[in-house]
């Protein structure tokens, strides 16, 4: 896994979020303030700009640059949260990047989000898509499957995790103000996290 793959990951994530920005905003309209699609679309446009203006020379530089751009440009809770996933990954990722190394770094990124957002699985947040994806990657490493299949399994786990937020009651973030009325809607951050994992599966070597 090289620098180009990591750049392609964010370019593909930007494409998917731009394509689905209205769906993400609609999900946020139901249980938040209707800005998640535009927030993340703006942030990923900034990521693209950063990666183009200062071409990264390593996977770590991609992650750090993308994380920083997301923190700077996504207004809203999700910017710092996504930023911390990628910046933490960048802190611990070893080169050359193997599947086991990617999986370990991703797991630490998810822990960073859980710590920053004080969120656990079941709280109806992006963690409900990210944590199953992380678990799927760890299992794939254990079972010795190839990178592409591992990323596909992680993408499936994230999509299932996002869908599983529908019957949950939100305990964190803006949606938690709705109490029981948050039940019955997919969490927008979990939905966008599933797009990040889908993008990863697409660019797998
Ligand atoms: P805001 O809520 O500030 O408008 P966004 O709409 O961009 O920010 O993002 C909302 C998403 O952020 C939620 O759907 C949820 O997945 C995620 N989120 C919010 N608060 C937390 C938290 N404390 N921990 C983890 N994720 C959170
Ligand atoms: Mg919002």
TrEMBL record:
SMART domains: Dak2. It holds the Pfam family Dak2. GO terms for cellular component: cytosol. GO terms for molecular function: glycerone kinase activity. GO terms for biological process: glycerol catabolic process. Keywords: Kinase, Transferase. Residues 4-202 form the DhaL domain. The keyword Transferase applies. This is Dihydroxyacetone kinase subunit L. It comes from Nonomuraea longispora. The gene is dhaL.
């Amino acid at each position: 896994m090289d620098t180009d793959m990591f750049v392609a990951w964010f370019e593909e994530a930007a494409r998917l979020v731009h394509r689905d920005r209205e769906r993400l905003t609609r999900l946020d309209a139901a249980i938040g303030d209707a800005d998640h699609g535009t927030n993340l679309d703006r942030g990923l446009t900034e990521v693209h700009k950063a990666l183009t203006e200062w071409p990264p020379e390593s996977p770590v530089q991609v992650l750090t640059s993308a994380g920083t751009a997301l923190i700077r440009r996504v207004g809203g809770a999700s910017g710092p949260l996504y930023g911390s996933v990628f910046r933490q990954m960048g802190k611990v990722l070893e080169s050359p990047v193997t599947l086991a190394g990617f999986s370990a770094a991703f797991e630490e990124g998810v822990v960073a989000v859980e710590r920053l957002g004080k969120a656990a699985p079941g709280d109806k947040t992006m963690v409900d898509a990210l944590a199953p994806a992380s678990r799927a990657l760890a299992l794939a490493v254990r079972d010795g499957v190839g990178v592409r299949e591992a990323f596909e399994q992680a993408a499936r786990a994230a999509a299932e995790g996002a869908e599983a937020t529908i019957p949950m009651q939100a305990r964190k973030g803006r949606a938690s103000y709705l109490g029981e009325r948050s039940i019955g809607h997919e969490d927008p951050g979990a939905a966008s996290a599933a797009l990040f994992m889908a993008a990863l599966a697409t660019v797998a070597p």
